[in-house]
Amino acid sequence: MLRYALTRALSLGLSLVVASVVIFAVIEVIPGDPAAYMLGMNATPEAVAALRGQLGLEGSVVSRYLGWAGGMLSGDFGVSYTYKVPVADLVAQRLWVSLPLALYALALSTLIAFPVGLIAAARRGGATDYGIMGATQLGIAVPNFWFAMLLVMVFAVNLRWFSAGGFPGWEDGLLAGLKALTLPAIALALPQASILARVMRSALIETLGQDYIRTARAKGLSRRQAVLRHALRNALIPVLTIIGLQFSFLLAGAIIIENVFFLPGLGRLVFQAITQRDLIVVESLVMLLVFAVIVVTFLVDLAYAAVDPRLRRRT
Amino acid sequence: MRLGAQLWVGAGLTAVFLLAALLSFAWTPHDVEALNIADRLKPMGAIYPLGTDHFGRDILSMLMVGARTSIAVALVAVGIGIGIGVPLGLIAAANRGSLLDEVVMRGNDLIFAFPSLVIAILITAVFGPSALNAILAIGIFNIPVFARVTRGGALSLWTLDYILAARVAGKGRLRISLEHILPNITNLLIVQGTIQFSLGILAEAALSYVGLGAQPPTPSWGRMLAEAQTMIYTNPALAILPGLAIVAMVLGLNLMGDGLRDLLDPRVRRARG
């Protein structure tokens, strides 16, 4: 297990380095002069020169990369050109919207998908199963931002149960915050829950066909006991992988959903930074997102190597 | 749903959109770029079958041309994925366990770590938003998908006797890959291509919704939704129709993909039966 963890940790480190080089190259090397790009067409040479100094563009590419990457490691993400505040402060503020949103959606998606997948697998081939499979097929096809608009139409415009957007901040209490995140979380969770329910169903059906389930039944366990005690645990391996993958989709999906509901999260920040050509913010935010995805994938890998010893051999 | 039924429903839905997109090259009920303020926000009727938007543009015409944008972006993105991913997968499988294989597969993992939306953000931050950059962002994400499917399919073929026979006959790895491996993984690629096509439609819609896709005046479903968002209080139909179009198209492709997989992969058929 330790050997497996170490190999995986090494490849985690390598992925992070390569990812940071790619992001740095795309943002700072390909456009030519980032300072000229950020200031636009009508910038005076003096202004460009001043910004170059401010951005630390005078050094060589290698020293600039090392400076940026080293800063990221120590929590210094640079200073936003438009907001004139450290990017770390901007991120910290907005992470308190984006992260709870992604986790809320992940919880919803899991809570919906588990029972639904379980029921469909237990009633395989029946009308309930066909109904569930049809519904999940539809759920996968619905774009989450459109589903979000439909939710706003029904629950905010017509029923007035929720507000159509905005975020009161956690200072107004946990419930007010959660209420503001509820529609966005449902919109994010629906397509993911549909995928997860289908994975859950097929994983369960596969384990139910295994010999050890027949043995368990032969020993006198009821169907329900066999499913809950033996099949479910083994079916969880592929399900866990998908949940891990979904976290990155949810984080990326949150970027779009935040724009539907005008939530002050990382997604809004990214798009504002793009329109304002604030490359420092874009660069650091993209790196953070990729960092989150790589680390979560790593943790999921470790978690299920711990659950399933067979996977450790396959490094 | 019975085997075959979902294939036909899926293929039918997909065909409707393909035909609408093709037809839009030659004819649309109205000009999609002509602004006609006098006829703005008309309800569904005889002249404008699905009504008009806030600029008086015909919704049906915009949906037809929007289908063209979606399909073009998704199709070219799948083409990029196949064009680069399949050769990489074949090479990796032919040199299994070598450094080359390792590099290709780790490179794939790395691209997977960038959600396609994040790739799109990176590209647009530098090159500005356009349909071309949307294609690039979605296409780059398709490369590792096809590389994996190809490598996985090819690896299982490389162990078979007829490949051994071909090697004994003196054929090189390249020739075996092209003559024996590739034709036998075509089914896999067709199924994966359909799935990636539908994901591409969804991704294009999302990108153009946030303004990172096709730019005005080119109609696209995602941007129609973005423009309709401020009018959901007064004109909900504007926000519903483009969404329905996306759902129907994606649903059609997904059903077709599932149906094709059942049809082309006998193992799935046996497992289901």
UniProtKB/TrEMBL annotation, chain A:
It is found in: Cell membrane. Keywords: Cell membrane, Membrane, Transmembrane, Transmembrane helix, Transport. It is a multi-pass membrane protein. It holds the Pfam family BPD_transp_1_N. PROSITE patterns: ABC_TM1 (PS50928). Residues 95-300 form the ABC transmembrane type-1 domain. It comes from the Bacteria. The chain crosses the membrane at residues 12-31, 101-122, 143-162, 174-197, 235-257, 285-307. Belongs to the binding-protein-dependent transport system permease family. This is Peptide ABC transporter.
TrEMBL record, chain B:
CDD domains: TM_PBP2. It is a multi-pass membrane protein. Residues 67-257 form the ABC transmembrane type-1 domain. It is found in: Cell membrane. It comes from Sinisalibacter lacisalsi. Belongs to the binding-protein-dependent transport system permease family. It holds the Pfam family BPD_transp_1. PANTHER family: OLIGOPEPTIDE TRANSPORT SYSTEM PERMEASE PROTEIN APPC, PEPTIDE ABC TRANSPORTER PERMEASE PROTEIN. This is Peptide ABC transporter permease. The chain crosses the membrane at residues 7-27, 71-93, 114-143, 149-169, 189-212, 232-253. Its main location: membrane. It comes from the Bacteria.
